[in-house]
Specification:
By secondary structure, the protein is an alpha/beta fold. The protein has helices spanning about 15-25, 45-55, 70-90, 100-110, 135-145, 155-160, 175-185, 220-235, 245-255, 270-280, 290-295, 310-315, 325-340, 340-350, 360-370, and strands at about 5-10, 35-40, 60, 95, 115-120, 150, 170, 205-210, 235-240, 265, 285, 300-305, 320. It has a 7-stranded parallel beta sheet with strand order 3-2-1-4-5-6-7, with helices on both faces.
């Protein structure tokens, strides 16, 4: 029996992190699977650091990234450049992850070629098509196209069932980011990220990440103003803020937060160093999705700077709290965790709802049955 060919397609750093364990797991069984890695390079620089970290060498690199590219540009260039690859390879399945525009465009291209699609991290929903934008609609489109739905949690599975997805095609696997995180924690050596050497060891470190499109403009301005006030109110607090490369983020952040000795604005970190900073932090303020999954595994409370989250499991489990973007609430809720050891420990000790680090193995087993290999 020939090995079944799977094209694993992705374009952003989060996708690469979450797909790396799956690629590694499938490649452990070369008689069953032939893995073809295709990257769109929607985010070139941030993607390449992850490829290097996990020793992933793409078989195809579409190289679509352009300065100031629109979402339409991304979709059109992916569709144009991936079609000849799919026609040449004729895979048995195309595997995509999450909700990036790359994932949607690659799934759409596979559908056009009548190739089955597997969707990892399926079923996440906010029920608001503009929050997050465009991710909420991207993942809904992928659900319509997909043949296999790998839901990270039971809540995600129920979302899919309520939308009419055949429950026989839905599988709860846990989130593959936990697999990746555990591997990185095992690999970390004694070296320290340079920014950590500048932190007063007696101070508490707040890790901040902001990049969502819906937070551009007034919400981001309010978040930054809240961060300045938090540092002013708590002399034992320092902030490390890896600033996203998007100029809409960098401009606002630098204008409001530059030139403060306890606020460290740094370039984006590679994943290995980012996890080291996360491990060294006291708590996290973020609008990211992935950090809501990663931080609880390391016992770090998460304050979510968004109005809606597609990961309500974290809120229900008590590992995260949804704050929105109004400065007064951000200041108040952060101060509670900084002042109250009881409130802090309640969040820090809550159990992560996102799996046990064996999601990639479960996905491989399901693909073995589906592809009869």
């Amino acid at each position: 029996m020939r090995a079944k060919k799977i094209v694993v397609a992705f374009g952003t750093r989060p996708e690469a992190i979450k797909l790396a364990p799956v690629i590694k797991e499938l490649r452990r069984y070369p008689k069953r699977f032939k893995v073809v890695v295709l990257v769109t390079a929607q985010h070139r620089q941030m993607l390449d650091t992850v490829l290097e970290l996990f020793a992933l060498e793409p078989d195809y690199d579409l190289g679509i990234m352009m300065t100031n590219q629109s979402l339409g540009d991304v979709v059109v260039r992916i569709l144009q450049r991936i079609e000849p690859v799919l026609k040449k390879e004729r895979p048995d399945l195309v595997l995509v992850q999450g909700d990036a525009t790359s994932a949607f465009a690659c799934a759409l291209a596979a559908y056009y070629q009548k190739i089955p699609i597997g969707h990892i991290e399926a079923g996440l929903r906010t029920q608001d098509k503009y929050q997050p934008f465009p991710e909420e609609v991207n993942r809904r489109f992928i659900t319509t196209l997909a043949d296999l739905h790998f839901a990270p949690t039971g809540w995600a599975r129920m979302n899919l069932i309520e939308e009419g997805v055949d429950r026989r095609r839905i599988f709860v696997t846990g989130n593959t980011v936990i697999d990746a995180l555990k591997e990185i924690v095992r690999r970390q050596g004694p070296g320290r990220v340079p920014v950590l050497n500048t932190i007063n060891p007696n101070n508490r470190l707040l890790l901040v990440t902001i990049h969502r499109r819906e937070n551009f403009g007034r919400p981001l301005t309010g978040i930054c103003q809240a961060l300045r006030q938090i540092v002013r109110l708590h002399p034992d607090v320092e902030i490390v803020f890896p600033v996203h490369l998007n100029p809409m983020v960098r401009g606002t952040v630098r204008t409001i937060l530059s030139n403060h000795k306890r606020i460290h604005l740094i370039p984006p970190l590679d994943y290995l160093n980012f996890i080291q900073v996360l491990k060294s932090s006291y708590l996290v303020l973020t609008d990211s999705g992935g950090i809501q999954e990663e931080a609880p595994v390391l016992g770090k409370p998460v304050l979510v700077l968004r109005n809606r989250t597609e990961r309500p499991e974290a809120i229900e489990a008590g590992t995260a709290k949804l704050l929105g973007t109004e400065p007064a609430r951000i200041i108040r809720e952060t101060s509670i965790l900084l002042k109250s050891k009881r409130c802090y420990q309640k969040m820090a000790r809550a159990k992560s709802p996102f799996g046990d680090g064996r999601a990639a193995k479960r996905i491989r087993e399901i693909l073995t049955r589906f592809l009869a290999c």
